[in-house]
């Protein structure tokens, strides 16, 4: 057995002064107040300024093993190997058009996949700001089964050529994309702009982002100050993969997007120095296979890093325990996991660590972070994280719930919408000091 190093980290509180939206960082205002974000009908910008009586500390301490104890204060040293140039940054993706690079030499799996980068374009359903005089001979010719989205419950879902057993639980339309990008903003703010925890070298060459989603972790947007991986590591050749083609058109020259299914066999062999994945809970059908594929795709000495959010709410002062919908949320995902045979508890148990160890990884290290929900923390940075998270969940609770509830548990649509409304009300009450748990696990291939 390998020793697993476990840390629990956030920053101790240095200020209890209230801030409102106007006092937040420029990046925060660009999301929370900009035209690119449409708040849900029952959420106003005034809701993002918490009441002083509801402020609380968000503190924790390191834990040697097992589940984290998040009850005491702990200040951490900056993790070596990072150069935090920017405070934080992100971009919201509004439209998506995709580029065929003609370089499909090495794709993740044996499934039909296409590389997207800054080459020739093909028409998509997204709006274009360009004229029609582009080279039509270079238009991509993906099979329609990969490009035609599936519509269900009034939402748009990724195409499903892989069959029912690996169908996506979540939509890939604009509300869900907004949720993903806001959670990215929250995590980036929480981690002081760090995109990874593994101590990779500065001039890293090959990087794979599995389940890239909107591509925001890997991409570059020149309109905002964004510390993304491809732009921050110009020597790296970055590939982002996903089953849904929702990534942006314009990317750095060192970034490619591929459509691919991480649950299939990968064809990459010892190519990458870092493989990053995030938000794959409920999407990975076999975590042991996932880790083995990553192991085979890494060069010796390369790192595999996974970031996952817990699907249960917590509070140090037990304020969430009187919230029936928050308690029901945890039981809901456990029931969905049991019936669908997919794990929704990987941030709460040792699934990721065990899978990495079984695959042959060493130097496995685990870190926990509190992920506040709402503007209750006294610390301004954590309060900003909580505001991002609150708006993200408000943006598309229904999208998270619909397929699992209706298709797996047999709920009616009315029950789904009622549950979402009740949970949204509890999250917006201002009386609950709730947080999710972010678990980061990274390991090295010998």
Automatic annotation (TrEMBL):
<comment type="similarity">
    <text>Belongs to the methyltransferase superfamily. LaeA methyltransferase family.</text>
</comment>
<feature type="region of interest" description="Disordered">
    <location>
        <begin position="44"/>
        <end position="87"/>
    </location>
</feature>
<feature type="region of interest" description="Disordered">
    <location>
        <begin position="103"/>
        <end position="137"/>
    </location>
</feature>
<dbReference type="Pfam" id="PF13489">
    <property type="entry name" value="Methyltransf_23"/>
</dbReference>
<feature type="compositionally biased region" description="Polar residues">
    <location>
        <begin position="106"/>
        <end position="128"/>
    </location>
</feature>
<dbReference type="GO" id="GO:0008168">
    <property type="term" value="F:methyltransferase activity"/>
</dbReference>
<dbReference type="InterPro" id="IPR029063">
    <property type="entry name" value="SAM-dependent_MTases_sf"/>
</dbReference>
<feature type="region of interest" description="Disordered">
    <location>
        <begin position="151"/>
        <end position="172"/>
    </location>
</feature>
<protein>
    <recommendedName>
        <fullName>Methyltransferase domain-containing protein</fullName>
    </recommendedName>
</protein>
<feature type="compositionally biased region" description="Polar residues">
    <location>
        <begin position="60"/>
        <end position="78"/>
    </location>
</feature>
<feature type="compositionally biased region" description="Basic and acidic residues">
    <location>
        <begin position="151"/>
        <end position="170"/>
    </location>
</feature>
């Amino acid at each position: 057995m390998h020793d697993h190093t476990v840390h629990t980290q956030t920053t101790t509180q240095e200020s209890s002064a209230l801030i409102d939206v106007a006092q937040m960082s420029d990046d925060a205002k660009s999301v929370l107040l900009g035209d690119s974000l449409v708040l849900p009908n029952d959420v106003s910008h005034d809701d993002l300024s918490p009441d002083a009586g509801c402020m609380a500390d968000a503190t924790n301490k390191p834990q040697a093993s097992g589940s984290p104890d998040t009850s005491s204060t702990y200040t951490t040293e900056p993790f070596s190997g990072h150069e935090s140039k920017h405070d934080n940054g992100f971009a919201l993706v509004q439209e998506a058009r995709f580029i065929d690079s003609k370089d499909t030499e090495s794709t993740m799996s044996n499934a039909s996949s296409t590389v997207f980068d800054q080459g020739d374009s093909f028409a998509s359903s997204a709006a274009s700001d360009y004229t029609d005089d582009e080279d039509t001979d270079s238009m991509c010719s993906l099979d329609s089964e990969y490009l035609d989205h599936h519509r269900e419950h009034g939402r748009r879902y990724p195409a499903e050529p892989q069959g029912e057993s690996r169908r996506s639980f979540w939509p890939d339309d604009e509300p869900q994309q907004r949720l993903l990008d806001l959670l990215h903003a929250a995590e980036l703010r929480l981690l002081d702009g760090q995109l990874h925890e593994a101590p990779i070298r500065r001039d890293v060459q090959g990087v794979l982002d599995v389940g890239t989603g909107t591509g925001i972790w890997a991409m570059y947007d020149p309109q905002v100050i964004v510390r993304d991986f491809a732009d921050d590591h110009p020597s790296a050749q970055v590939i982002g993969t996903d089953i849904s083609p929702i990534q942006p058109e314009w990317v750095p020259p060192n970034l490619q997007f591929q459509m691919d299914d991480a649950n299939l066999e990968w064809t990459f062999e010892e190519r990458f120095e870092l493989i990053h994945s995030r938000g794959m809970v409920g999407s990975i059908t076999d975590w042991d296979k996932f880790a083995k594929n990553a192991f085979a795709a890494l060069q010796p000495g390369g790192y595999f890093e996974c970031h996952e959010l817990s699907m249960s709410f917590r509070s140090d002062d037990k304020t969430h325990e009187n919230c029936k919908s928050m308690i029901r949320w945890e039981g809901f995902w456990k029931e969905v996991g049991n019936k669908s045979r997919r794990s929704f508890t990987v941030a709460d148990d040792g699934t990721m660590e065990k899978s990495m160890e079984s695959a042959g990884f060493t130097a496995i290290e685990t870190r926990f972070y509190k992920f506040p929900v709402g503007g209750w923390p006294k610390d301004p940075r954590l309060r900003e994280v909580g505001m991002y998270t609150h708006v993200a969940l408000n943006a598309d609770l229904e999208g998270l719930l619909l397929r699992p509830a209706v298709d797996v548990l047999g709920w009616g649509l009315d029950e789904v919408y009622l549950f979402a409304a009740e949970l949204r009300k509890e999250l917006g009450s201002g009386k609950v000091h709730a947080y999710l748990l972010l678990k980061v696990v990274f390991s090295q291939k010998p």
